[in-house]
Amino acid sequence: MAKRIDVSGLNAYYSSFLAIEDISMTVEPRSVTAFIGPSGCGKSTFLRTLNRMHEVTPGGRVEGKVMLDDENLYGAGIDPVAVRREVGMVFQRPNPFPTMSVYDNVAAGLKLNGKFKKSELDDVVEKSLRGANLWNEVKDRLNKPGSGLSGGQQQRLCIARAIAVEPNVLLMDEPCSALDPISTLAIEDLIGELKERFTIVIVTHNMQQAARVSDRTAFFNLAAVGQPGKLIEIDETERIFSNPSVQATEDYISGRFG
Amino acid sequence: MDITTDPQKPAPAPVPHQPPGKDAKRAARGATRPGDRIFLGLSRGSGIFVLVIMAAIAAFLTYRASIAISKNEANFFTTLEWNPTGTPPEFGIAVLAFGTVVSSVIAMAVAVPIAVGIALFITHYAPRKLGGAIGYVIDLLAAVPSIVYGLWGALVLVPHMEGLFGWLDEYLGWTGVFEWNQGAPRSLFTVGILLAIMILPIITNVSREVFRQVPRMHEEAALALGATRWEVIRMSVLPFGRSGVISASMLGLGRALGETMAVAMVLSSSFEINLSLLDTGGGTFAQNIASKFNEATVMGRDALIASGLVLFVITLLVNGAARMIIGRRKEYSGANA
Amino acid sequence: MSHATLTPKSRSSLRGATLPKWFLWAVAAGSIAAGLGISAAAGLNSSIQWALIAAVLFVLGTYAISARVEGGRQAKDRVATSMVWVAFIVAVIPLASLVWATVKRGVKVLDGYFLTHSMGVVADAEVGGGIYHAILGTLEQVGIATLISVPVGVLTAIYLVEYGSGKLSKAVTFFVDVMTGIPSIVAGLFILSTWILMLDMGPSGFAGSLALSILMIPVVVRSTEEMLKLVPNELREASLALGVPKWRTILKVVLPTSVGGITTGVMLAVARITGETAPVLLLVWGTDFINANPFQDPQESLPMYIYLQFANSGGYGAAYDRAWAAALTLIAFIMILNLAARGIARWKAPKTGR
C-alpha cells in the first residue's frame, strides 16, 4: 500500500512568481514526515505539489520530478485525477461536504469509482470511521449532516473520507490548526495509528506537534519575503530537534525567529 | 454594525453635552435636536411612502377590478371570452392564464439549463480572463431593453423559426402539441423561446454569482478525492448552489410572466386556447393589456386592470418565494461558513 | 485490500488512457460536417436545424469515443464539458445576433438628421424623419422619474441602514424586494387607475414618470442600501464620538463615503427605466410631434418610438429602418450609462472595504 515519494529539482510557481525552488527529498513509506518552517516558506505549496493540487490554483505551475515509487507524477500521460486518488489529502479546516450525511461523506470517494453493493459500502464506511477513531461517536447518526459534528469530529470525518479510498499516501495540511487541544490530541493519536498503513506527510506550525508525531522532519525557510522558499534540511526528527546541522534550523526551533 | 441593530426605540433623552461613546449614540438616535428629528422624519417618511405605494397599488387595482368584475356576467376565471363592452359584458382570464403559463414554462425549460451551463462555463470551464469577459458581456446584455428584444424577435427570430417548426411538426406533430398548420410562426412557442433568450442573462448572472461563492475548500475536498471536474461540480458546486439557482430562476420567471412588449410584438394573438403551441393564437396577461388598451373604454380598461391585478398577485407570489429561498440560503451558508 | 483494485487501468494506475487534444476539434469538425450534410440531404434550410444536429452529434460522439478509450467517468466528464460548451454557444448565437442585427440595420439611417428631426410631417411609409421628439421625451420623463426616485430611494435606504431596526424596517425591506418584481405594465395600470381614471388627468410625460418612479425606487433603495452597509462603522462612531449629531454624521461622513456607489446604482436604475415601454404606452401614448412639455399632452419616448414604428410600419422598410436606428440609439445610450456606472464604481470603490 504505502509508497515512497522521491522529489527532485522541484520548482512551483504562482503565475510568474517562484514560490518554492529546487526542492529534493525522499519521504519514506509507513512513516510520518513533518514539514515545519515560518509562514510563507512554501511548505503548504510543496505539499500540494505532491498530489497535483497546486495546479488547481489559478496560475499554479510545477517543474521537476515527483516519483511515487517508480512513477513520475508529472510525467507525460499521467492523469492528475488518478494521482489524487492515490495520494489523499486532509485540509487545514475541516471541509466535509455540507449537503451530505456522515455516511455519504465517507462513501463519496468510493462512489466516484464505480458501483458498489450497499453492504460493501457499509463495510468500508464502518472500517474507515473506525480507522479515524470516529465510529463510536457517530454510529448512531450516520444519516445526519456531516456539518453538524464538532470541529474535531469533522476533521476526523475528513480523514475517514480520505482513507476510505485506500490511498498510498496521506497529505495533511495543518490538520489541527483549527482545532482545540483535546481534538488535536485525538488527531495526533490517530496519525500514530495511521502510519502503520500509509505514508503520511504533515505540514504543521506547531513544533511540539512535529516532535510528537513525526519520524522525520523537514525544515523550510525563505531568505526574505518575495524570495522563493527552500528546503533547508531534512533528517530524523530527533536529530532536527536536538542537534540540527544547519544554524537556521536551530534558530527557528529555539524560537529565535519565525 | 451595531448602530443599525440597536434595539432601543428613539426616546427623548434631552441631555446636553453628551460625553462621547454610547450616550452620544443614543442621543443621536434619540432625535433630540431639530436637525435629527427632521432627518429621521424624512427618512422614515420615505420608508413609509414605499409601503403606502405598495398598499395603494393593491388597493386601487382591486378597486377598479371590482368595478369591472361586478358588472361581469361570466365567470372571471373560466370564461374564454374577452368582451367587457358587450351587452352583457363577458370576460375571463382563462386564455391569458394559459398563454402566460405556457410561454413562461417553455422559457424556463429552455433558459434554466442553458443559463446554468453558461454560469458553469464562466466559473469552472472557461479560461479565467475569457470567463470574466463573458460575464461582463452577459451583465451588459441583461440591460438590453425588452423592446429591442421584441424588435429582434419579430424581425429576425420569427423568420428563423419556420424551419424548426416544420421539423417539430414532422417528427413530433403526432403529439398534437407540436402540430403546425403552416401559419406564420408567431405563436406561443416562439414567444417562449424569445422569453428564454431574454431571461437568460439574468439567470446566468445570479447563478454565476452563486457558483463563484462556493467555498474553495468544498471543491478541493472533492478534487483531493480524485474527482473529475464534472464530479467536483456535482459533489460540491451544484449542491451548494442549488437554492441560488432556484431563486435565480424564480426571478427570471417573474420577468417572463410580466413581459409585455416583446410578447405583444411577436405573438399573433387571438382569444382562444390552442393546444398546438406552434399555431398562432392565445395571449398573455401583459400582452393582452398592451394590445387591447388603445381601443378600450372605461369599462374595458377596468377589465384590463382586473387581469393586471391577477398578474400582480402571481408575480408577488413568485418573487416572494424567490426572496424566501434566498433568505433561507443565507442562514444555511452562514451556518457552514 | 478488497477494493484496492478499483483502478483497473493499464500498466500503471496513474496513467489513464487519454485522448489527444485534437480529438475534440476533430469530433467538432466531424459533427458540423455531418450536420450540414444531413441537412443538405434532407433539404433542411434553417441554420437552427443543422446547428442542433451538429450539437447533438458532437455530444454523442465525444461520449461514445471517450467511453471506449478512457472509460465511463472520463466520458461523463467529457460530456459535461461539451454540454457546457454547447450551452454557451447556443446562448451566444441569439445574443450575438441581436447585437449584430441592431448595429447592422441601425446604422442605415442613423445620422445627424435622424437625431435632430421629428416624425411630424413624415408618413409611416415614407423615408426620412427622426427621433428628436423621442429623445426629448425620454430625457424629460426619465429625468423627472429620477428626481422623484432618488430622494425617496436614498432616504429610504438611509432609514433602513442607519435607523431601521423594528417591524417597520422589516416591512419596508420586504416590500422593496417585492416591488423590484412588479411588472412594468402593472405599475402603468396603477398610475392609470389613480392619475388618469380617478384624478381625470390626460396622458402626459409626467404620468409616465410616475410609473417609471415606481419601477426605479426599489432599485435605488437596494443599491444605496448595499453601499451604505459598506461604510465601516468605525467612521460613524468616530464622528459621533466627536459630538457630531447623527444627521450631520450621515450627511457629512456616511453619504460622501458612499457617493460613488450610490451614483453607480442610480445610473443603473436610470438605464433600466430608460428602456421601459409598457407604462409609456398606457400613460404617455406617444406622438409624432415635438412636445417639450412633459405635463400636458402625449409625448414620445425612444422605446415607444421603436414600438410605434414597428407596429404602424405596414411592412414598409422605411419604418423598420427607423425602428432599428432608434433601437441602436437606445442601446448605445443604455450601454454608455452602464459602462460609465461601472467605471465610477471601480474608480470610487470604497478603499476601506477590505
Automatic annotation (TrEMBL), chain A:
TM stretches of this protein: none
InterPro entries attached to this UniProt entry: AAA+_ATPase, ABC_transporter-like_ATP-bd, ABC_transporter-like_CS, P-loop_NTPase, PstB-like
The protein, known as: Phosphate ABC transporter ATP-binding protein
GO biological process assignments: phosphate ion transmembrane transport
GO terms for cellular component: membrane
Listed CDD domains: ABC_PstB_phosphate_transporter (cd03260)
Alphabetized GO MF terms: ATP binding; ATP hydrolysis activity; phosphate transmembrane transporter activity
Gene3D superfamilies named in the record: P-loop containing nucleotide triphosphate hydrolases
Keyword ATP-binding appears in the UniProt entry: yes
The organism of origin for this protein: Streptomyces pactum
UniProt keyword annotations, A-Z: ATP-binding, Nucleotide-binding, Translocase, Transport
Stretches assigned to the ABC transporter domain: 5-247
